[in-house]
């Protein structure tokens, strides 16, 4: 009887140890593999299925993300981490931007702002519009690393600063190509887009474009 009791206790212990081991393995660690790669692959699947830029609303994008993650993640425990990236994003929110704010101590935080002009620096710090739609990626170590007060995100897809223009003009990005505009040419200063566009650009003037992440000339 005593031997059976000891055997039973050992069996229960083994089951508990197995459950603990399984639980520990399932805990998500987004800072290292395999979970880091798992999350990256699952987020890529979300973008492919849910289309951040063309989502009809933010709520619709977040719902689509949750559905996709349920089948895309190898470790289901990482769903909370990956879904937070969808929630803290500009997807389905026209005109909204990710904003990277660095305080005087050098601590950087990302937040969602209604437009680029609302991305303002804290006292003694700097701020810039993030280069990606999710706060999970927007504030890299290279962004906002400048002494200017407020910046915009990365350069436009094409760097037009080297364009050969007539005297008194400078290169600006026109959504799909470069063009020359009277100086001061379209650019970002003091948290706002401003400056001149080519005289033959018929639609929007100099403005912040959330898709390209920079100040540019011309409409859709």
Report what the structure shows:
The protein folds into 3 domains: 30-90; 97-151, no CATH class; 169-216, no CATH class. It has 220 residues and is an alpha+beta fold. 30% of the residues lie in helices and 18% in strands. The chain has 4 helices and 10 strands. The protein has helices at 2-26, 35-50, 58-72, 79-87; strands at residues 97-102, 108-113, 126-129, 150-151, 169-173, 178-182, 187-189, 192-194, 207-209, 214-216. A hairpin with a 4-residue loop joins strand 9 and strand 10. It has a 4-stranded mixed sheet, with no helix packed on it. A two-stranded antiparallel ribbon has the order 5-6. The longest helix has 25 residues, at 2-26.
Topology:
Elements: H1 2-26, H2 35-50, H3 58-72, H4 79-87, E1 97-102, E2 108-113, E3 126-129, E4 150-151, E5 169-173, E6 178-182, E7 187-189, E8 192-194, E9 207-209, E10 214-216
Parallel strand pairs: 3-4
Antiparallel strand pairs: 1-2, 1-3, 5-6, 7-8, 9-10
Helix pairs in contact: 2-3, 2-4, 3-4
Give a short synopsis of this structure:
With 220 residues, the chain is of the alpha+beta class.
What brief labels describe this structure?
220 residues; alpha+beta; 3 domains; four-stranded mixed β-sheet; two-stranded antiparallel ribbon; 4 helices; 10 strands; 30% helix; disordered N terminus
| String of helices and strands | HHHHEEEEEEEEEE
Strand composition percent: 15-25%
Helix content: 25-40%
Looking at the structure, what is the overall shape? elongated
Overall pLDDT metric: 77
Strand order of the largest sheet: 2-1-3-4
Sequence stretches where pLDDT stays below 50 over 5 or more residues: 1-25, 145-154
The tally of domains stands at 3
Radius of gyration of CA atoms, rounded to a whole number: 24 Å
| Helix vs. strand class | alpha+beta
- How many strand units? 10
Distance between the termini: 82 Å
What is the number of helical segments per DSSP (H or I, 4+ residues)?
4
Describe the biggest sheet? 4 strands, mixed
């Amino acid at each position: 009887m005593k031997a059976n009791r000891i055997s039973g206790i050992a069996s229960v212990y083994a089951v508990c140890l197995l459950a603990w081991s399984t639980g520990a393995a399932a805990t998500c660690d987004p800072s290292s593999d395999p979970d880091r790669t798992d999350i990256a692959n699952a987020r890529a699947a979300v973008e492919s299925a849910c289309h951040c830029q063309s989502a009809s609303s933010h709520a619709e994008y977040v719902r689509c993300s949750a559905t996709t993650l349920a089948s895309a993640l190898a470790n289901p425990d990482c769903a909370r981490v990956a879904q937070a990236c969808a929630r803290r994003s500009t997807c389905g929110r026209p005109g909204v931007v990710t904003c990277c704010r660095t305080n005087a101590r050098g601590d950087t935080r990302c937040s969602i702002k209604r437009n680029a002009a609302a991305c303002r620096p804290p006292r003694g710090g700097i701020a810039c519009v993030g280069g990606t739609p999710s706060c999970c990626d927007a504030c890299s170590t290279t962004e906002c690393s400048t002494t200017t007060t407020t910046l915009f995100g990365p350069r436009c897809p094409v760097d037009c600063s080297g364009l050969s223009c007539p005297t008194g003009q400078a290169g600006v990005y026109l959504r799909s190509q470069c063009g020359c505009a009277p100086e001061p040419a379209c650019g970002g200063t003091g948290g706002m887009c401003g400056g001149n566009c080519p005289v033959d650009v018929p639609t929007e003037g100099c403005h912040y474009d959330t898709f390209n992440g920079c100040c540019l000339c011309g409409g859709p």
